[in-house]
Design brief:
Layout: H1 11-15, E1 23-27, H2 32-48, E2 54-61, H3 68-81, E3 86-90, H4 100-118, E4 123-125, H5 130-142, H6 147-150, E5 156-159, E6 162-165, H7 173-183, H8 199-212, H9 217-245, E7 246-248, E8 254-257, H10 258-263, H11 266-281, H12 289-300, E9 307-309, E10 312-317, E11 320-325, E12 335-337, E13 342-345, E14 349-353, E15 361-365, H13 367-378, E16 393-397, E17 400-404, E18 409-410, E19 422-426, E20 436-437
Parallel strand pairs: 1-2, 1-4, 2-3, 4-6, 7-20
Antiparallel strand pairs: 5-6, 7-8, 8-11, 9-10, 10-11, 12-15, 13-14, 14-19, 15-16, 16-17, 17-18
């Protein structure tokens, strides 16, 4: 079976976990793996009948290669031949000179999830496969990763409030290539896959030697699955702990009971802090295990000095560990929204401006200035922990504060249109089972 095309009789088992999602966004770059995803998802949709989900093909043009636009057009043509709608999303602006693959990955997911939220797409689907899983395990093993790292690529994760499914993790690359070959479908070869400046390319080239020593892709992927099983058990225990001892605010901060944290087993305490940080940060930051261990050690020792990690500020106060989003030196950015439009801001809040609003509004962090204006105009203090206001979502018309939806604040006698001209929902609140929200 290793080099056999994927048969139609296998498709139901492959795509069954995604059935609950009514509209999928297929991440298709033009490479072999993602082209096979588009082909097989299209075939399964035809077999699924009346209750089949809608499919949309999303291609990100990073602008990093001379013919990236041509590659996107190739995907568009193939999608059209399958009767699937296609959209090319472009990564504008300056590209970093270092860490380009990580930056491109973040941009890719930001663009796709932003488009998905605006077009009623309920999930993203990517084509990561068994060989990707094995390579990821080896790379993380070399870095001394813990159990979570060795669980490698998850079948389901989240980005900016949207589930990301990876249904091909049990399929080797060779079967995807055979599937395209049998269908006569061409794909784009990414030169970075052969560029030894990148760690994954070096690991991939070393795989034949490792396989001769017994380190097969199947065996490594099996280890990742077993690690994932152990991770699920620890995550379940952590969720129970967080459900009793943590509160995640719809305003985007988290409070964790210090006494309960100090009593908890070290691994549960570490995972509780990590999960809370991910909720506050929007689930998008890779958190260094070494730095996380140092932070939890500092907290267990009663350290009162504030710390920062993964874009968050962590403070011990009033027997609580408070975690808030850190605005940072460059701020959190702004989004200008026309009436009737919506977007994702800072990967944490889904924001929208009402269709009957009279003017476009700017979404940005509230900050201390905005907090002061809100208190003055509301005529009463607004309860918010120190530091949380700096990163709280807010809507402005020029320099005039219009609304802070998480706090129920809408400027009186505003001229922008309806009483509530805008809305914001904290998408991270829906990602982490176990943490109570308020």
């Amino acid at each position: 079976m290793e080099h056999q095309p994927v048969h139609e009789c296998e498709l139901e088992a492959i795509f069954r976990p995604l059935r609950a999602c009514a509209h999928w966004g297929l991440a298709v770059s033009g490479g072999c793996d993602s082209m096979a995803l588009m082909l097989l998802a299209g075939r399964w949709r035809q077999l699924a009948g009346a209750d089949a989900p809608a499919l949309s093909v999303l291609t990100v043009d990073h602008g990093l290669r001379a013919d990236s636009a041509g590659e996107a057009r190739h995907v568009a043509r193939e999608a059209s031949s399958l009767g699937l709608p296609h959209r090319t999303l472009r990564w504008p602006g300056h590209k970093p000179s270092s860490g380009v693959q990580a930056a491109a990955r973040a941009a890719r997911y930001d663009l796709m999830t932003g488009y998905a939220h605006s077009h009623a797409i309920g999930c993203l689907v990517t084509a990561h496969h068994l060989d990707d899983q094995a390579e990821t395990l080896l790379m993380r093993l070399g870095r001394g990763s813990g159990l979570d790292g060795l669980a490698a690529i998850a079948e389901v994760s989240h980005w900016a409030g949207l589930p990301v499914f990876r249904p091909f993790l049990s399929l080797p690359r060779s079967r995807l290539e055979a599937t395209l070959g049998a269908a006569g479908v061409d794909w784009v070869a990414d030169p970075s896959n052969e560029d030894e400046r990148f760690e994954r390319a070096r690991v991939r080239k070393a795989m034949p030697v490792l396989q001769s020593l017994g380190f097969t892709s199947e065996g490594l992927a099996r280890t990742a699955r077993r690690m994932h099983r152990a991770r699920q058990a620890l995550d379940a225990a952590t969720s129970v702990f967080l459900g009793s001892h943590a509160r995640l605010s719809q305003s985007g901060y988290c409070e964790l009971d210090y006494a309960a944290f100090a009593r908890a087993p070290e691994e549960i305490g570490l995972r509780a802090v990590k999960q809370a940080l991910e909720a506050v940060r929007g689930g998008a930051a890779a958190i260094s295990l070494t730095r996380l261990e140092a932070l939890t050690r500092h907290l267990r020792e009663g350290g009162a000095k504030p710390r920062t990690l993964a874009g968050c500020r962590i403070v011990y106060r009033k027997n609580q560990i408070l975690m808030v989003r850190e605005a940072g030196r460059s701020g959190l950015g702004e989004i200008r929204l026309e009436p009737g439009k919506e977007a994702i801001w800072d990967r944490r809040f889904k924001v929208a401006v009402a269709c009957d609003a009279r003017f476009p509004l700017t979404v940005r962090a509230l900050g201390q200035k905005g907090m002061g204006e809100m208190r003055a105009r509301a005529g009463r203090p607004m309860a918010l922990p120190s530091g949380a206001a700096a990163a709280l979502v807010s809507f402005w018309r020029e320099e005039r504060l219009v609304a802070v939806p998480p706090l129920g604040f809408y400027a009186p006698d505003d001229e922008t249109g309806p009483t509530a001209p805008c809305a914001a929902s904290f998408v991270s609140a829906h990602l982490f089972d176990g943490i109570s929200t308020r």
